[in-house]
Design a protein that fits this description.
By secondary structure, this protein is an all-alpha fold. Helices cover 78% and strands 1% of the residues. The protein has helices at residues 2-36, 41-63, 73-99, 102-108, 112-122, 133-154, 178-207, 211-233, 246-273, 275-279, 284-297, 303-346, and strands spanning 159-161, 301-302. A two-stranded antiparallel sheet has the order 1-2. The longest helix is centred in the last third of the chain and has 44 residues, at 303-346. The radius of gyration is 22 Å and the shape is globular. It starts with a helix and ends with a helix. Belongs to the drug/metabolite transporter (DMT) superfamily. Plant drug/metabolite exporter (P-DME) (TC 2.A.7.4) family.
C-alpha cells in the first residue's frame, strides 16, 4: 500500500506539469492567433486575469468555507510580489510572441532551468561543489542552455518543413529581422521573471500552504497591476470593447485553461516536488508548440530553431542529471545518519 501511495506521489506532479506544459503551448498559439486578428495584447492580459480571479473565487470560498487561513500583511505582500513577477512575465511573453513566434517562445522558455539554477545559487537554495562531477554538469548545462537560447534568437536558417510556400530562401542565414531578435530578448526576460516566480513561489508555499488562496490573490493583484499598465499603454477606448467573436474565445481559453488551470497545477507541483523539478519540464513544450503552430498558424519550423532547441535541451538534461545525482547523495546521507544510532545501540 505504501509503495502504491509513493508511486502516485511521484506520478501526479509529473502528470500535472505535463498538463501545464500542454496548456502553455496552446496558450502561445492562441495568443499569436488573437494578436494577428487585431486584439490588443495588454487588454487580453487584463481580461484574462480578471476572469480567472472571478472564476477561482467561489472555489476558494468553498474549499475554505470552514476556516480561511490567516491573511497577514506579510502574506499579502508576498502574494503581491508573486503577482508582480507573473504580470511582468506575462507582458514580456505577449510582446515577445507578437514580435516573433510561438515556436521561438517555446524554445526560449527552456532556459528557465538555467536561470532557476543561477537564482537558486544566489539565494543559497543550491550549492556548487566543484570537486563533484554532478555540480560541474549543472554549471556546464546552465551555460550550454543560455548559449542555445542565443542560437535560436540569432539564427533562423532554412525551414526544415514547410506548411506554406511563402518562404523561398534556401540559404543558411543569420536572422536579420530586428523584430525577431527583439522578440527573443523579451522572451528571455520572460524566462528570467518566470524563474524568479518559481524560486519565490517555493518560499511562499512553505509559509502559506493554501494553494488556491495563493493563486487567487496572484490573479487579483495581477489584474490590478496589468490594468494600471494597460490604462497607460492603451489610449484607444475601442480596444477595450469585447464582442462575441474569436477574441472572446481567446480570453476564455486564457482565463480558464492557460491561466487558472496552469497556475493552479504549477503552484501545486512546486509545493509537492520543488521549483527545479517543475522548471525541468519546459523542453516538453517545444513538441507541443511546434505541432500546434504548424497546424493552426501554418508556421514553418526553421533549422536554427531545431539546432538551438537541441543545444538547450542538452544543457537542460545536464542540469537535471546533476541535480538528481546530488539529491540521491543527500538521501543516502540522511538514511545513513538515521541508521547510525540504531547500530550504536545494538553494539
Amino acid at each position: 500500500m505504501a509503495t502504491w501511495v509513493n508511486g502516485w506521489g511521484k506520478l501526479l506532479p509529473f502528470l500535472g506539469m505535463l498538463m501545464a506544459m500542454l496548456t502553455q503551448s496552446g496558450s502561445m498559439v492562441v495568443i499569436k492567433f488573437a494578436m494577428t486578428d487585431g486584439m490588443n495584447k495588454y487588454v487580453m492580459v487584463v481580461y484574462s486575469m480578471a476572469l480567472s480571479s472571478s472564476i477561482l473565487l467561489p472555489f476558494v470560498l468553498f474549499l475554505h468555507r470552514s476556516e480561511l487561513p490567516l491573511l497577514t500583511v506579510p502574506a499579502l505582500g508576498s502574494f503581491f510580489l508573486l503577482a508582480l513577477f507573473a504580470s511582468s512575465a506575462h507582458i514580456m511573453a505577449y510582446v515577445g510572441i507578437e514580435l516573433s513566434s510561438p515556436t521561438l517562445a517555446s524554445a526560449i522558455l527552456n532556459v528557465i532551468p538555467a536561470f532557476t539554477f543561477v537564482l537558486a545559487l544566489i539565494f543559497r537554495m543550491e550549492e556548487v561543489h566543484w570537486r563533484y562531477f554532478s555540480s560541474q554538469a549543472k554549471v556546464l548545462g546552465t551555460i550550454v542552455s543560455i548559449g542555445g537560447a542565443f542560437v535560436v534568437i540569432l539564427y533562423k536558417g532554412p525551414p526544415i518543413f514547410r506548411t506554406h510556400s511563402s518562404y523561398t530562401s534556401n540559404k543558411l542565414q543569420f536572422s536579420a529581422q530586428p523584430n525577431w531578435i527583439l522578440g527573443g530578448i523579451f522572451l528571455v526576460a520572460d524566462s528570467f521573471l518566470s524563474s524568479m516566480w518559481y524560486i519565490y513561489q517555493a518560499s511562499v508555499a512553505k509559509k502559506y500552504p493554501a494553494v488556491t488562496v495563493i493563486v487567487f490573490f496572484q490573479f487579483l493583484f495581477s489584474t490590478i497591476q496589468c490594468g494600471v499598465f494597460a490604462l497607460i499603454a492603451v489610449r484607444d477606448p475601442t480596444e477595450w470593447e469585447l464582442k462575441f467573436d474569436r477574441g472572446l474565445s481567446v480570453i476564455l481559453y486564457q482565463a480558464i485553461v492557460a491561466t487558472m488551470l496552469r497556475y493552479t497545477l504549477t503552484t501545486w507541483c512546486v509545493h509537492r516536488a520543488g521549483p527545479l523539478f517543475c522548471a525541468m519540464f519546459k523542453p516538453v513544450g517545444i513538441i507541443f508548440t511546434v505541432s500546434m503552430s504548424a497546424i493552426f498558424l501554418g508556421e514553418n519550423f526553421g533549422l536554427g530553431s531545431l539546432i538551438g532547441a537541441v543545444i538547450i535541451v542538452i544543457g537542460f538534461y545536464a542540469v537535471l542529471w546533476g541535480n538528481s545525482r546530488e539529491e540521491n547523495k543527500i538521501e543516502n546521507l540522511e538514511s545513513s545518519s538515521h541508521n547510525a544510532p540504531l547500530l550504536q545501540d545494538r553494539s
